[in-house]
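User: Predict the structure for this protein chain, please.
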Amino acid sequence: MLIADTFIANIDEAKNHYDVRAEYSRLLGMALAKQFDVRCLQLAVLAARASATVTGGNGGSAITDADAKTNGASLAASIFEAAKIMDEKDVPENERVAIVKPSQYYNLVQTTDVINRDWGGAGVYADGKVLRVAGIQIIKSNNVPSTNVSAVAGEQNTYHGNFSNTAAVVMQKQALGTVKLMDLAVERTSGDFEIMYQGTLMAAKYAMGHGILRPECAVEIKTA
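Assistant: Here is the predicted structure, written as structure tokens:
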């Protein structure tokens, strides 16, 4: 069970001329959504490092690119290499994505080869957008792991690892799977608890887990 909570004092709620609970509910949901992304991206990198899950199948892949975090052209070349690796492993061409940090994303935007329409590029320099490289959709996210993440007590699945050299991850949706026991819900306290503390405890929760399905559908781009 993953829980995000906050306490709203009745006196603070009374002072405000607007409804605060709706905003807190939204933010609690966003906090859980962020953890969903964090865990899935960590697992995507772990999938790229995993061996085949079925006999005769393929494992994940890694591309070493020392300049991937600082050079847009180098990162673009690595994404092309990832596309080639996926093709060679019979990974479906549809719904492939490359998830990069914002700094790498804007390095790609400033790489004219990537967005030059005369070269078949897709993106807008003025808007700071790059759409695709090698047919792969480019997505920026602050949740791409970039540190040594320790194990968390109570987690039943393995999401931790050393991601210090991870620059980006390229994946197709079949790489990972999610099982959900309890969908997102928001609850608030009532009764004696409110009387004792003169406030309301709000909590958002869900119960789900993620696992590796097809590691060949994930490629890690790393600097070393």
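The chain has one domain: 2-222.
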